[in-house]
Amino acid sequence: MIDEDDSNVSTTGGAVTLGSTAAEHASARTGLATGFLQLTPHQLDQPVNRVAAAVRSEVPAGAELAIDVRGQLGEEEWTEWAEAKPGEPAVISAPSKVIQIRVALTAPKGQTPKLTALTLTADLAPSAPSAQGVQGLSYRVFATREGLVGGTTANGHVIVARDHFVALPSRRGLASKGTGTYSVKVCAANGRCEWAPVWDVGPWNIKDDYWNPSATREMWKNLPQGKPQAQAAYQDGYNGGKDGFGRKVANPAGIDLADGTFWDGLKLTDNSWVTVEYLWTGGGTFGTVRTSGDTLNVRTGASSANAQVGLAANFARVKVECQVTGENVTGTQGTSNVWFRISAGKFVSKAYIAGVGTVGRC
């Protein structure tokens, strides 16, 4: 059944195919239609970290049909998506008793792959990868402004003016629209930061999870961890100076920022180097920003009188370090005088943060 966490897919006559909307890798500007069918999480009797997939499908030339797998770590925390390829099971980063499957379809517009049968087998690998540490991975990368208002992102979100999300060049960290399961903290040299969900794929590439080590990086395994392929192509002439589609790389971008994130969250005026923390790669206590649709102000202290030093997008996940008592605020989560510190010198009101239990005082 198609529901809100799916985008641009159709299930007709027992087959999964692309739908008829304009969903694509907007940031990567590939011109390829894309769609995702996210199946209901499946509860297992024993934890697993390896899942094999056998498919019956029809895939036209230039199209792709992939089976992605992830494991649940907590109520709202999941491992990164990993692809189960023919003869090569997906290995998720931590054993889990709850797994979820996502069917990813990509094709030139006017064509579609067709999935007619899917069989899965799962087990626990003898030498399982270790779970993520408390501190998430963080790298300094070049950021560009995505723009493209009115376009449709890889997860089916229609881009609006002053929007707040980011694009990364791999679907491994792509969140469903209206969720922030995969979110980043982006900070500029001016000290401002924004917490935003990953809702698109790009820039330049679509299979470059550069934040991962070479052992698990999908492509460009001979590049240093944390260095996007586009940066290597632009700065070092890597791959002949071209991206994964053979296009001449015109900038070293490793992240694309929606207009609101770029202009309002970070107060950038031009493409710039930023520091990005890929929040799902670390542990700790997390909450989800829930507003009526606007962004949440991030301030230097526990009061609306304190300076605003950034924004947190609606649906973004934020890591909660500790709490303090401050101004009483009424929001979507009730009325509270508790404020959470989500980074050094940066606070948000608990009245707009869902899913956080008791945390220690700062």
Query: How many helical stretches?
Result: 2
Quote the beta fraction. 35-45%
Going by helix content, strand content and strand pairing, the class is mainly beta
**How many strands in all?**
22
What is the secondary structure topology, with strand pairs?
Blueprint: E1 9-12, E2 15-18, E3 32-38, E4 42-58, E5 64-71, E6 82-84, E7 90-108, E8 114-123, E9 137-145, E10 166-168, E11 183-187, E12 193-201, H1 229-236, E13 253-257, H2 259-265, E14 272-278, E15 285-289, E16 296-299, E17 308-312, E18 317-320, E19 322-331, E20 334-343, E21 346-349, E22 353-354
Parallel strand pairs: 9-13, 10-12, 12-17
Antiparallel strand pairs: 1-2, 3-7, 4-7, 4-8, 5-6, 5-7, 9-14, 10-13, 11-12, 11-14, 15-18, 15-22, 16-17, 19-20, 20-21
List keywords for this structure.
single chain; 362 residues; mainly beta; six-stranded antiparallel beta sheet; six-stranded mixed barrel; globular
What does this structure look like?
The chain is mainly beta and 362 residues long. It is built from 2 helices and 22 strands. Helices cover 4% and strands 43% of the residues. Strand 16 and strand 17 form a beta hairpin. The N and C termini lie far apart (45 Å).
